[in-house]
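Section handout 9: paired folding examples.
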Amino acid sequence: MSLPPIHRVVTGHDADGKAVVTSAGALPTVVELTAIPGTVFHEVWNTSVTPAPADNGADPTLGPLVLPPPANGTRMRFVDIPPDTADFLAHGAARMHGAFTQAGDAGASTVAAHSPHPLMHRTESVDYGVVIDGEMTLVLDDSEVRLLPGSVVIQRGTNHAWANRSQRPCRMLFVLIDAAYDPALATALAQR
């Protein structure tokens, strides 16, 4: 089952300050991870400063795929996640360096021999993850939560993975916000 394409409408202003549509149509940056076939990143928009400029600037999603948000910025994307397969669960950990490298953050993978899932990773960001279609399981170091359409996860820099234990793809919407670990947490993470 294939999920529908994302349709994006970007607004702006004309020379007189009137609100206008500056672009409408398919997303210009859609990337399937070669190490995890069926995992597709649909890049919607990002900002690189706070406050973000409300202007008619260039499309910030053009260019290579980058997993985390820019420093002091945000990133919005949809991700289609295929069902986990027996092969992926058995051999996926060996492919994660390549997958996270293609996603622009090789250092995000935290998978180790004792990891509960081959996609375990961590980013120094606050992420809002919303299940749009399908179902997903949020995997943490010591627990799991089943997610259905409408479920929202607020991910606060924690080690996690997304496990699709259903028989069809799941689409999630993510908004990632640049963050900094609390100093005590940063110290604890450095000692792990």
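Moving on to protein 2 of 2.
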Amino acid sequence: MRPPAAPGLGPALLPPLLLPLLLPPLLLPPPPAAARRAPRYDPTWRSLDARPLPAWFDRAKFGIFVHWGVFSVPSFGSEWFWWYWQKEKIPTYVQFMKNNYPPNFKYEDFGPLFTAKFFNASHWADIFQASGAKYIVLTSKHHEGFTLWGSKYSWNWNAVDEGPKRDLVKELEVAIRNRTDLRFGLYYSLFEWFHPLFLEDKSRSFQQQQFPVSKMLPELYELVNKYQPEILWSDGDADAPDYYWNSTGFLAWLYNKSPVRDTVVTNDRWGYGTICKHGGYYTCSDRYDPGHLLPHKWENCMTIDKFSWGYRRDAGIDDYLTIKELVKQLVETVSCGGNLLMNIGPTHDGTISVIFEERLRQMGTWLKVNGEAIYETHPWRSQSDDITPNVWYTSKRKQKLVYAIFLEWPTSRSLFLSQPIATLGVTQIKLLGHGQPLNWTSLKPNGLLIQLPHLTFHQMPSKWGWALALTNVI
């Protein structure tokens, strides 16, 4: 059910440092003896931003985003269905409801229809493992406010009390940790479109904090303590400042005392003005792809469906990115120092549609051959080739390796690379998945002309891009 209206019980606007003191003690249990140490990080952005990003995240390079919720029931247009239908009253959404549902049908009536009847967490985990991803991020709660776990603070608008009557977060967490080597992460929307406490706070220009104190902060503490996510993907600040959300106070607890304090990774969406400025790594915008090296770790969160994060029953085949386009996104992103977070949208009954499963398994097939040029790599001095298009570079410094990933196989079988400088008798070049050293010619003042092997289509080590390992080049 939709949360009922609630009286104004929250405190007036308080300094961020005082907000954690208002939360019920059960949300902040005493840490074990080993965790009782002096705080390393203060609740200020200057202190929090100084925390080193846990090294596993940069090594991982590739993750899966999963947008799943009540919006998967109408599965029309976008996961913003409720907003576009009820608030903006976009004609196509209004007409969709008139054509398919009774006149008095409300959004909360979709809740019982979100059944997750065919949701098999083990099957999902096996698909994610096959994709070659190293982490997943599940939407534990989107802007509609429906939580995929039995939140004590959700007013029964959750997957345990409504719809599936199951703790979907727990089922996936257990499957991921028992069946895969992926890290488990959770997305959480700070705000909710139509929650009465949030709307009241907003009407007062966020000069009171009923919603964060009564709903959002308790849920975040509950999520971390119960499921111990190693990625906390915050979203949806609704133009409210970070002190309204008490973001710095929460993050100080997360980094100092939480059960995942040493391994957890956070993004940059913690209040108005924080995106691309504060947090563990930057997302900057949806589908962010700068095309050049950034000085701070970043992530390109993007969708296989070009137009929606949630499942769309009205999507056509041309609405989905091809595997060739997805490989290109991965290669470009990693060469520029980013991670790729590739999104799928399961159906309301818990099925990963065939088109999404195919793309994930295709990416895994490509990474089995070329993953050496992706995982645990670093940006090289040049991210792409100046002369030959669709060539991107990565490197492994300790091994003195540079990888040249090319996305078009030249018909002449001669590939020119303008950036590497090679040395005769020292430099060696191999095609990943082929094994035999390749012949090459050094060109002056710099650059290489590489002779690729004569291979039939079926002999190709991969289909949608290839990687060369260059040893001892500068």
